[in-house]
Amino acid sequence: MSLLEVRELTLAFSGLVALDGVSFDANDGELLAIIGPNGAGKTSIFNCLNGVYRPRTGTMRFQGRDLRGLRPHEIARLGIARVFQNVELFPHMTVADNLMLGRHVLMRTGLITGALWLGPARREEVRHRRRVEEVSPVGALPYGLQKRVQLGRALAMEPKLLLLDEPVAGMNLEETEDVARFVLDVKEELGVTQILVDHDMGVVLDIADRVVVLDFGRKIAEGAPDAIRRNPDVERAYLGEPLSAAG
Fold this sequence. Notes:
By secondary structure, this protein is α/β, with parallel strands linked by helices.
């Protein structure tokens, strides 16, 4: 079943077309990868899904609800979480406090009750803190672990759809393999649908269920990883670099 349906998505900036009629589905429980050279439009898709960009035309339906016109916090409340390429944590806060930020969309107490930490707010925070564990200031952790905290914060929202924007960027081989295993665990143990954007073709083609390929804002291929490896249009988009060597 399709959790997310994107149809004929078009986005342009002052005449520059970033997305040109892109369509794809993300199925329930699937790990979908979106790949393409730099400037292909991968991150633009995420920005549209998050409500950061407003597409010119096209539709984006999540569990049957149209996402167009919704603000980022409204989309987050629907169950769409995002992990950014750069580490966007609060380094002087603990791991637990960073994770608690991911729980805010699930909290229901108001501003005054929360500020005064009255009974309902106190009980709610205690309940949510049971879901996280205080370890150390997150800024003292190695880069790879900070990326995992980012993933954990997104998962603390209990999302139905997780958008992973280059989760292994800047990592060494050991850290990359660790995060790849973590992503697979999220799929297999939590059943969360994930859309992955990354330049590490070895990781993408090894762990994805299905791959969508973009080039200059257009979709040029879609299919299973093995089929994408052998697709000549995809190889040409990557300037002749054979994908058969990846993974």
